[in-house]
């Protein structure tokens, strides 16, 4: 039995978890909520620094009650990137200190791939096309020849970021995605907004500007929120469907915090149903940023010998999933 401690803190959520082969032993988190505006990288990092000791101690204590002790830990995994530099550095420093103290190896984890692997684990999915939609990232990926390949992605901001910016413009606090979903559910009218798909890529900043303009022109918030969602989610669904058709894959996995949106889920489910494909989405706690996904991918990497030395543990704010050699497929699945 392997036990891995995982630390996540790329952006808004500081989270730690202890995971073993077949289950999450214990997980805890501490969310940073900006007093106003969006996520401020330095403030978020300060939040993480002040909460790290409590969050890690809580996991160790919680695990004790389930019969696990600190000496059972085989390795320390952390989000090496992508993410906000100050947040990544704070969490990496803690991971290095823990690994040195416990005399156990460090495991550098790609945050995007962690979203994918926890989804495959929780949903029992084999070889999916993945739509990964979060604050900063929006990508369509699939596994091919030893790596997760990016088939399509945003040309500017992530969909979550676009929703958060638009919500902020309406005076709503961070995170804006769930508030927009709520407003959209009450709409009666669709307003035309720019639909931007270029090949397999998409873009959200023009859409966000046009939505702000529609509000300024006097359209009601509900209608603009609804139109924003319909347009953006249709773009994502179109590219995802094309990816499935090109790759001949019959499973779709939804990942990332925006995946909690029921309208997005509904569009993807309909698309999959029409093609005879299987649609999977994990529970909300595994969609958004969480420590369990870092610990779980850390466990897969540990089992396949993919640990790192201290000198290789520098953070990678622009870490792309296709930089990682996927050595673990075939071990647990
Ligand atoms: P993550 O970075 O993966 O934790 O995702 C965070 C992003 O998910 C933020 O931009 C949120 O606004 C967004 N989000 C969370 N819940 C929803 C929802 N129900 N609908 C749309 N976006 C959401
Ligand atoms: Mg994320």
How would you describe this structure to a colleague?
With 333 residues, the chain is an alpha/beta fold. Helix content is 44%, strand content 20%. The strands form three sheets. Strands 3-2-1-4-5 form a five-stranded mixed sheet, with helices on both faces. Strands 8-7-6-11-12 form a five-stranded mixed sheet, with helices on both faces. Strand 1 and strand 2 (13-20) form a beta hairpin. Helix 1 (41-65) packs parallel to helix 2, helix 3 crosses helix 10 and helix 6 runs antiparallel to helix 7 (221-247). The radius of gyration is 20 Å and the shape is globular. The model has no long low-confidence stretch (mean pLDDT 97). Adenosine monophosphate binds at residues 11, 134-135, 160, 163-164, 175-178, 181, 256-258, 260-261, 288-289.
Sum this structure up briefly.
It contains 10 helices and 12 strands.
Write down the Rg.
Answer: 20 Å
- Overall shape: it is globular
Can you tell me the CATH architecture of the largest domain? Answer: 2-Layer Sandwich
How many beta strands in the DSSP annotation? 12
Low-confidence stretches: none
Query: How large a portion of the residues is in β-strands, by DSSP E?
Result: 15-25%
- Give, in spatial order, the strands making up the sheet with the most strands: 3-2-1-4-5
CATH topology of the largest domain: Nucleotidyltransferase, domain 5
What's the story with the biggest beta sheet? 5 strands, mixed
* N- and C-termini, Cα separation: 17 Å
Estimated helix fraction? 40-55%
**CATH secondary-structure class of the largest domain:** Alpha Beta
Number of domains: 2
* CATH homologous superfamily heading of the largest domain: ATPase, nucleotide binding domain
Tally the helices.
Answer: 10
Helix and strand run: EEEHEHEHEEEHHEEHHEHEHH
Mean pLDDT: 97
